Amino acid sequence: MRCASCGVENPEGMKFCGQCAAALRLRCAQCGFDNPPGFAFCGQCGTSFIAEQKEKGGSEAERRHLTVMFCDPVDSVARSQRLDPEEVSEITRQYQEACAQVIRNFAGHIAQYQGDGLLVYFGYPVAHEDDAQRAVRAGLGILAELPHLNAQLQQTVQDLQDFPLQLRIGIHTRGFRVRSCNRAFCKLGVVCAAHDKHSAWGWCCRSG
Fold it and tell me: What are the tens digits of pLDDT across the range 157-174?
């Protein structure tokens, strides 16, 4: 069985990963059935694991292999100085909608819209064996959509004919300690991710 946190193959029948000690099964508190990690609902009785996690208040951190992608337009500040706020807003809206569609196709989770940028998680809240590949494919898919998006926007925004929309995409993957976060000052409110236990609240509360 492959560990969803570190990707190591473990022998059948193991309850915890021999590499990172992450649980290989998610036990349902309602019926006792052992589910694979990443399930949102029990495969035996349908009990929601999301509701159970909310009741716990997200106090327990979990080690996962997480892939993070950030995408934002190039020279957006210069563009905003040349265009009206309404035009900038429409460009941002259409670009983010196009990105979101591609990201959903690869099971990515948009954790936060940071201005005109997008912070995306692959591997949380639902993990897949190929999350890093999904992130790369999503990034390539976004770039493949860019010519069509530019052609569409250029019909109404003259500036884009001379300065077409360009994007930069960064992807990073590694093991993290993750937890749900409902703190008032947390801008994500979805997940805190830290490189190790010494990083107090991780990325979500350092973002922005």
Answer: 888 888 898 999 999 888
Spatial CA neighbour of 132 closest among 88, 66, 80: 66
Residue type, 47: T
Q: Quick one: pLDDT at residue 52?
A: 55
How far apart are alpha carbons 188 and 78 in whole angstroms? 27
Q: What are phi and psi of 18, to 5 degrees?
A: -75, -10
Domain assignments of the chain as residue spans, ordered by start: 1-56, 64-206
Run of H or E residues at 161 = helix 159-162
Q: What is the distance in angstroms between the CA of the first residue and the CA of the last residue of the chain?
A: 38
Question: For residue range 173-189, what is the model confidence (pLDDT) as tens digits?
Answer: 887 766 655 444 344 44
Chain segment 24-58, per-residue pLDDT in tens: 777 787 787 888 777 788 888 888 876 555 554 44
d(CA 94, CA 8): 40
Q: Using a CB cutoff of 8 Å and minimum separation of 24, what contacts does 137-144 make?
A: 137/106, 138/69, 138/102, 138/103, 138/105, 138/106, 138/108, 139/69, 139/71, 139/169, 139/171, 141/102, 141/105, 141/106, 142/71, 142/98, 142/99, 142/102, 142/103, 142/167, 142/169, 143/167, 143/169
Which CATH code is given to the segment(s) 64-206? 3.30.70.1230
